[in-house]
Write a structure and sequence with these properties.
The complex is a heterodimer of chains A (about 350) and B (about 525). Chain A is α/β, with parallel strands linked by helices and about 350 residues long. Chain A is built from eight helices and 19 strands. The chains are: A alpha/beta (about 350), B alpha+beta (about 525).
């Protein structure tokens, strides 16, 4: 029912692609990160909450339809519905059912609760397509609440030491997650323009966030003393960042579990905070689907497929895609639309 | 181990040298003397021998957490460090126990020659009682590669601060042959003189690569210019009618150099000579690798000695008649050295010590020309030493400079890649390069360094998209990318498919302007080999 071709994940019966990486007629989008939601599709279908971000990133004039979780539409006999993936706000697993056969394309997902996106719901299916960004037993993410506590106490310490605190996080998803958990009694919060743009969309679509000011030309260096500034990876080692001196810089990513990645990025602190599954979450998710066919995409796909095959006794196949997931070395990642900003102080 | 673990974290979380010195000094002030001693020993390269094999660690860990060995292997290749892999895989302990650093190390040393079940029980028991940071340190200790991102210099500075002693004195007292099992740090630092350890060398004075314009060095007459030999930097010490030969890595290597043993009866007691040990036969300089092979041998046969006889090219005298003369100007030290050696040569014409000849230059242009023909003399370049310089401790700028010739270079095609370690873990950064032999690509060098972090990430991305095949951790890639590989020398090697081995290969730059067919050939390498030998 579902196949993989040069354009992406394809359902021939409905003639739709899921997260295609080349322009196609009809695309269903799991979430609005740039490796899953690309430019040039004839039409887009996504969760209602993703629509404003898709328009913002891909153009106001795109042809996009938004639906709710659990709501289903029928295309040529294929029943298609969206279900919470827990990855970022508006992210969805795509369930496809045709003549009793059920596939679920999970996109990116996590089982941890992040306080801003609807938690992941396991869906029973025959075939499950999963990512494997952190598909190795070495990845065991700590409880996110303790990580948020660590971030807050680090901020407090930096403020005491007369330093600003910079937190590097993806503009879409991670930035709102962090903002939501900052202890506003410590000090003021500022954002890079790219983060602020997405925050505004979040507030319009989902609800309020703690107050945060966009850094622009009207802000005096004095005003940011001791505050926290949330910026996207593309802001690292730019003149924009240097103007925020003196600062301490922390990166929030699942890769911060690896000492090598932490040291390479030249951050003062690495916080293990990911919108992807770690090893246990992946295994739990796969077991709960009850699926007998598992397709493994981006990440440690050959290793994880072999593990699933051996351990769970189900068919597991690795699939080549152009999804990238969370990147170890994001500073050199293609800047997402809206991430580039030279707004000064 | 809590204090030591906190020290480790503090140093890990800063790049500032001063913060590191402060953190260490604080530790030295609060730590028990035995723990401080082991801390210094670990940081200055006196690591205890491993008593557990890494294969055992992998087996025990995979059994304990119940994952297959192959998955453990794959995890190790991604993480790039066995100690860290095990740390990440093991569950959080139910409760932790406080251990002393020195006790852990001595307990580990005591595991030598113990039966496997005893060693297994000890390690697993520890694994279940340490918090994650301590566990990482423990695993680094048992895998024998504990490091902390501090140089010897930082350790010396911190000790100087904590114990209020002059840094040069600290450096001197720490150099040499002390054993952390029998000597405590406070005793070592409190020692009155050099007399307690007669083998103790002086900390080597090391030169920086030349970074200023020659004209800024002043008049050429103020400088000694010598050739820079490619050998083993060493100190020959005669005290109490005993001979000691130390290498720059502060290894006592006396047994490796039988040709120096007779010096005990030739040189006066209280003599320390600094120089370069090189292989020289019938006045002909031999390739470095012949000495390397000889040094690597367990048993020195007569033939090995005949094939690669060693001499020391002597360039400094740091102890004379039992007196430390490092503060005297180089002119004086060199004069004493020259007199001593010429008297020696008169009495013993075959003595394996030669004075490092001066290269006389009227002006800096002549020096520049001498540098360029260094390879004709089998040398790596020139050394520039200010005539009135004192013998300093460690690597210092200003008075001594090394001025090496540009490396030889060849363009190779990237054919294999493997994930790196440490900072490069999880990235494909260990490369194998090949040259053309007809229409076949023959590997000739491995190189790890030379690219910027940004380029590494770019190449890593390219590798992931252009993988042809995987053999264990190694990927073969489409032969497409060309890199200029620099090296210091080239030697024949029957063990390598290309028939040659390069000395210090590294990446000079990524030749994005070249396609694979424009890379060099095996013949080019052989021509370079002929030109050198």
């Amino acid at each position: 029912m579902v196949s993989f071709d040069d354009n992406g994940i394809y359902c021939a019966q409905a003639d739709v692609y899921i997260d295609p990486w080349r322009p196609v007629n009809k695309a269903i989008i799991t979430h609005a990160h740039s490796d899953h939601a690309r430019w040039g599709m004839g039409s887009y279908l996504a969760h209602r909450d993703s629509v404003p971000v898709l328009r913002y990133r891909l153009g106001q004039d795109i042809n996009v339809q938004g639906i709710n979780y659990g709501e289903s539409i029928d295309i040529n006999g294929v029943r298609i519905s969206l279900h919470p993936a827990g990855h970022i706000w508006g992210s969805a697993q795509i369930r496809l059912e045709y003549k009793g056969e059920i596939w679920v394309v999970s996109g990116d997902y996590k089982l941890q609760q992040d306080g801003i996106s609807k938690p992941f719901e396991p869906i029973q299916c025959h075939s499950f397509i999963t990512e494997s960004t952190f598909g190795l037993p070495t990845y065991n993410f700590p409880d996110p609440l303790t990580v948020h506590d660590d971030i807050n106490s680090w901020w407090r310490q930096n403020k005491e030491d007369g330093k600003n605190t910079i937190i590097i996080a993806y503009a879409l998803g991670k930035a709102q997650r962090i903002l939501k958990h900052l202890d506003t009694s410590i000090g003021n919060i500022f954002t890079h323009g790219a983060v602020d743009n997405i925050n505004k969309l979040y507030e319009q679509t989902i609800g309020p966030l703690p107050p945060a000011r966009r850094i622009d030309a009207t802000i005096d260096k004095k005003e940011i003393e001791g505050s926290v500034i949330i910026a996207p990876p593309s802001a690292m080692s730019t003149p924009w960042l240097r103007k925020l001196n003196p600062y301490k810089l922390g990166i929030c990513s699942g890769w911060m579990q690896l000492r090598g990645a932490r040291r390479r990025r030249g951050a003062d602190r690495g916080f293990i905070l990911s919108d992807h599954c770690d090893w246990e979450q992946l295994n739990t998710a796969i077991k709960e689907t009850g699926a007998s066919n598992i397709y493994v995409t981006h990440g440690y796909k050959s290793i994880y497929a072999k593990w699933v095959q051996d351990e769970f006794g189900v068919n597991a196949t690795e699939v080549e895609t152009l999804y990238t997931g969370e990147q170890v070395d994001d500073a050199t990642d293609n800047p997402e639309k809206g991430d580039v900003s030279n707004e000064g102080l | 181990m809590k204090d030591f673990s906190r020290l480790f974290t503090e140093i890990d979380q800063t790049t500032s040298t001063n913060d590191k010195i402060d953190a260490l000094a604080r530790y030295f002030e609060i730590a028990a003397p035995e723990d401080a001693t082991w801390c210094v020993a670990l940081l200055t390269g006196k690591r205890p021998k491993r008593t557990i094999r890494s294969g055992e660690l992998r087996d025990w860990c995979s059994q304990l957490i119940n994952i297959p060995v192959w998955l453990m292997e794959e995890s190790y290749h991604v993480v790039g460090d066995l100690a860290e892999t095990i740390t990440l895989l093991l569950p959080e302990p139910e409760e932790t126990t406080e251990y002393r650093l020195s006790n852990i190390i001595t307990d580990l040393m005591a595991l030598q020659d113990k039966a496997e079940d005893v060693r297994h029980a000890f390690i697993v028991n520890m694994w279940m009682q340490l918090d994650k940071q301590e566990l990482f340190i423990f695993n680094k200790l048992i895998t024998g590669n504990f490091r902390m991102g501090v140089s010897d210099k930082i350790v010396m500075k911190a000790l100087a601060k904590a114990f209020a002693i002059d840094e040069n004195i600290v450096a001197h007292r720490l150099s040499g042959n002390w054993d952390p099992l029998t000597t405590r740090l406070d005793q070592l630092l409190g020692a009155a003189d050099t007399t307690d350890d007669i083998s103790r060398p002086y900390p080597f004075y090391l030169a920086y690569p030349l970074e200023t314009e020659l004209q800024e060095l002043g008049a050429v007459e103020d400088w000694y210019i010598e050739r820079k030999y490619d050998g083993i930097r060493g100190q020959i010490i005669i005290r109490d009618s005993q001979l000691f030969v130390w290498s720059r890595g502060e290894d006592l290597m006396t047994e490796k150099f039988p040709e120096f043993h007779a010096l005990v009866n030739m040189l006066p007691n209280g003599t320390v000579i600094d120089g370069e040990i090189i292989p020289l036969k019938d006045e002909q300089l031999l390739p470095f690798h012949l000495m390397q092979t000889r040094i690597g041998r367990k048993n020195l046969t007569k033939k090995a000695l005949q094939d690669a006889p060693l001499v020391m090219i002597c360039y400094d005298l740091v102890e004379y008649k039992g007196e430390d003369i490092r503060e005297k100007p180089l002119t004086e030290r060199r004069l004493l050295l020259t007199e001593m050696l010429s008297q020696l040569q008169e009495k013993f014409p075959t003595v394996p010590l030669q004075i490092s000849p001066l290269v006389i230059c009227e002006n800096w242009e002549e020096a520049a020309a001498e540098r360029l023909n260094a390879r004709d003399h089998g040398c790596e370049g020139l050394m520039l030493k200010r005539k009135d310089s004192v013998y300093k401790t460690g690597r210092k700028r200003g008075d001594w400079w090394k001025w090496k010739v540009d490396p030889l270079s060849i363009d190779g095609v990237l054919i294999y890649a493997q994930r790196g370690h440490g900072r490069r873990a999880n990235l494909y950064t260990d490369f194998t390069f090949a040259v053309w032999n007809g229409d076949e690509l023959v590997p000739f060098a491995k190189a790890y360094s030379g690219l910027t972090d940004k380029e590494l990430v770019e190449v890593d991305n390219w590798i992931k998209k252009n993988t042809l095949d995987k053999f264990g951790p190694v990927r073969s890639v489409t032969p497409e990318l060309v890199f200029e590989i620099g090296f210091e020398g080239i030697n024949p090697s029957p063990r390598h498919k290309s028939g040659i081995a390069l000395r210090f290969p590294r990446i000079l730059r990524w030749r994005k302007d070249k396609s694979a067919d424009q890379a060099n050939t095996r013949q080019d390498l052989q021509d370079m080999l002929k030109a050198q030998h």
